[in-house]
Structures are given as structure tokens and as C-alpha cells.
Amino acid sequence: MLKYIGKRLLMIFPVILGVTFLIFTVMNFTPGDPAIMILGEGATPDQYAALREEMGLNDPFFVRYFRYVTDALTGDFGRSYRTNLPVFQEIATRIPYTLNLAVTSTLIAIIIGIPIGVLSAVKQYTITDNVALGTSLLLTSMPAFWFAMMLILLFSLKLRILPSLGADSWRHFILPAVATSANTLASLLRMTRSTMLEVIRQDYIRTARAKGAKESRVIFGHALRNALLPVVTIIGVNFGIALGGTIVVEQVFALPGLGQLMINAIRSKDTPMVIAAVLFAAIIASVINLIVDIVYAYIDPRLKSKYVTVKARKATT
User: Fold this and answer.
1) Fewest CB within 10 angstroms: 183, 196, 216, 217, which?
2) From the CB of residue 52, how many other CB atoms can be counted at a distance below 10 Å?
3) Residue at 122 is within a domain
């Protein structure tokens, strides 16, 4: 198992290298001049030329890319064109807001979506099942920005019980977390229901019931555990997306998170900031995928036994 984890960690480096090359290429061909952005439009041509030379913007593309990768390996991701602050410092100040939003929204989706999905599968074709499926379809079809604005209209403007903008206290994260969790909740509900329906029709479930096992033991001890693999996949993917920056929701609620930082950096062609933010999101997504694979092995012992069997075969040969 440790060898498998080590291989997966090594596979992250080519992914990161490819992401940096792609973003660096895209930002290189987008219109805009960093020198004008930094000095403003009132500077002289000589000042622009001097700054370009100082920043190495006149060097060939691959020279600039190799220099960026070399500096990044030493922990230097450059300085922001807009603020002249270290890129890593700005990202570090935004991460807690995005992390808080991602964790809270994922927990809401798990706590509500999985139990309702199980209940919907157990009570298939009943009113409970129809209401659950209808709610899931409604949450999936609503755009995130529209749902966020509806929450603001109801809970902030009409009921006046929750703040609509900012990130000063935990109450400011309630509405953004609910808006962010809607799509994940709907996906978890549908996937849990679908996999539970497949599992509860298996022979070992009928055998457990025939032996007199309690229904709660059958559903949660046997069926749910074997139905969790695709559910865990959805949790991991959506958590990675949320941690990468829920751009729309952060813009609506004016949260100073990673998503809003990326939007502002793209608009101003702040290349070091864009590359570092996307690079951070890629690393997080890769780590989340690795964690999901590890969780697979603990949910389903058969997967873990494969690694043990392979290791034992190699030892005997």
C-alpha cells in the first residue's frame, strides 16, 4: 500500500508540470502588457522597455518558462503584478476562506444527501422517494449564482437573520456553504440511491435478512458500506472543485477566497498569480484523488487485499 501511495505521489509531478506549461502558454498569448499594468499608462516608452528587460519579458518563451519552474521549485512563485506582494503570501491569506467554505459545504452535502439517498432507496416508488428525486432534480437544475441570490433575498433582505456579504464571522459562511453544497448534495442523493438499489438486491442482503438480522444492521452495516465507493468518488471530486475556488459563489457573497483571487488575476493578466492559483488547485485535486483511493481500500477490504496479495506474490518469487 505504501508503495502504491509513493507511486501516486510521483505521478503528481508530471501533472503539475503539464498544468504550469499550459497556463503559462495561455497567459503568454493573451493580450496585455504587464509593464503597462505595473507602471500605468502615464510612463514613458523607455520606462516600459526598462521594466520589461528587468522582468525578463524580452527573453524567449521557453527561457522564461524554465526560469519560472526553477524558481517555483525553490519556493519562489514570483510577485503579483497588481500588488507587488509575493504570490504565495496572497494565496495563503485566501486559503482559509476557501477551505472553510469547501469543508462546510461538503459536510452539509454528506449529512443531508447520503441519509436521504438511503431512505429514498429503501422506500423506492413511495412519496418519500418521489419528493427526494424531485428535490435532487431541482437542486441540480438551479444555477449556483441564481440560488445564491435567492438565498440572499430570503434570509438577508426579507427575514434579516443572516448576513449577505463579507467573511467577518461564521454566520457569513452559512449562505455561501448552502449555495455551494446544493449541486453536491443532489449528486450524492442520486448516487447513494442508485448504488443502494443495486446492493440491496444482492444475494448476501437477502441472506442476512433471512438469518434474522435487524433491518438497520442490514442497511447500514452491509448495504451502505458496499454502496459507498462511487459516493466517495463524488465527495472527493466536488471537494477538490470547491477547494480550487467556487468562483461564482465567492463573487456573489464577496468572499475573499481563492476563486475571487483567480478572477481578479485573470482580468488584470497577473500571470504569476494565475499560474500559482491554478497550480495550487491542481495539487489539491491530485491529493484529493489519492486520498479517495486510500479510502477505497478501507471501505472495501477486497481492494486492500489486492495490494497484500501482489506483495506476497513478489515475496515468494
Assistant:
1) 216
2) 16
3) yes
Q: Is residue 161 part of a domain?
A: yes
Task: Phi first, then psi: give them for residue 186, nearest 5 degrees.
Answer: -65, -40
- Pull the grid cell for residue 269: 493578466
In this structure, what are the phi and psi dihedrals at residue 79, rounded to the nearest 5 degrees? -120, 150
pLDDT digits (tens, 9 = 90+) for 274-292: 888 888 877 877 788 778 7
Q: Locate 263 and state its grid cell.
A: 478572477
What pLDDT digit, counting tens, does each position of 23-37 carry? 888 877 777 777 777
Cβ-based neighbours of 98, under 8 Å, separated by 6 or more: 242, 243, 245, 246, 250, 255, 257, 258, 259
What's the rounded Cα separation, in Å, for the pair 154 and 194?
33
Structural domain count, the chain: 1
Q: Is residue 261 part of a domain?
A: yes
Cell of 161: 437573520
CATH number reported for the structural domain that contains residue 196 in this entry: 1.10.3720.10
Alpha carbon distance 97, 258 (integer Å): 8
Q: Residue 172: which of 113, 240, 101 has the closest Cα? A: 101
∠ CA 174-175-177, nearest 5°, is 65
In a domain, 270, yes or no: yes
Domain that holds residue 105: 87-316
Burial of 215 (0-12, 13-18, 19+ CB in 10 A): exposed
